[in-house]
Amino acid sequence: MPGVRDFPIEIQHPVRDVQAYLSSRGGVRPYALARADFEPLPVGEDRTDVLAFVNEVPADELPPRFAAAFGEGAITQLRQWSYRGVPPYALRIRLRDARWREQESDEAGFGWAGRRAAREAARCIERDARPRAYVRRWPAPRTAAFTPPAHDVLQDWTSPAFHPVRDVHVRLAVASACGVFAIATADFEPLPTGSDLLFEFVCELADSRLPQEYAEAFELGVHETLCAVGTSGLPTAAVRVRLHDAKWHPVDSSERSFTEAGRRAAAEALRGQAETHPHGGYPG
Q1: Are 154 and 234 in contact (CB under 8 A)?
Q2: Least buried of 36, 111, 190, 203, by fewest C-beta within 10 Å?
Q3: Strands 239-247 and 199-203
Q4: In the chain, what are the helix, strand and coil shares in percent, each to the nearest 5?
Q5: Which one, of 116, 138, 147, 108, lies nearest residue 38 by Cα?
Q6: Is the pTM of this model over 0.85?
Q7: C-alpha distances in angstroms, 167 versus 186, 212, 242?
Q8: How many CB atoms neighbour CB 221 within 10 A?
Q9: Per residue in 181-198, pLDDT tens?
Q10: The CATH number of 165-276 is which of 3.40.920.10, 3.30.465.10, 3.30.230.10, 3.20.20.210?
Q11: Are 6-127 and 165-276 the same fold in CATH?
Q12: What is the domain class of 6-127 according to CATH?
């Protein structure tokens, strides 16, 4: 198995159609929607120069500063995993499609989307898995001249009925030398019939109440669990999750603890579906 001394690892196959989505619903996060390919890049003599970014979205469709922020975010994330200055993978990141909204999108949001896409691509490489999807049908492009690339989310996929589960509460608190602390309360509700989304996470908490990296970690745990019991990288149902209360500790909280809290919250919501609607096809 390759280790850090083997960096950069030359991957054999590209990871296609990696989606990154940030919902601006709730007014806390910026809006960003992007999808990218992560392709093998030949390794030259300089083993530190093994990451490249290519933007294929026209400026009329996506402001260049947003595209540049996405590329910078993805490359920054990959470089954070470097060993002695060498990134883990030799990759070309190709931004193939993106959407933005007036007054709701900014460079920080697209940088965030780039980091998220890089993490998902790394997961796919390490586990030989397909990317997890957020969007089933993409919004129409802004300009008629731009023809968006096709993507492979199953168009005939139908979400099973999902009934709202309110105030799913998770508390992780372990007092020890390496403490664990994550408290979160979220609502799980169905997305509207015919929605283009497969999964939407709405954070209703400002950074002053919960740092964005912990909200991101909670979302990751929820989405991971919903997709784990689904098929083909799709969630088990089209769900909107609203995180409306949380507590954290400046010493004992971590991204790992909030990821686990997200997993437990999703598992509890699915358990509730199975108990109250036993013929809905949900795991108990």
Answers
A1: yes
A2: 190
A3: parallel
A4: 30, 25, 45
A5: 116
A6: yes
A7: 5, 21, 9
A8: 25
A9: 999 999 999 999 888 899
A10: 3.30.230.10
A11: yes
A12: alpha beta
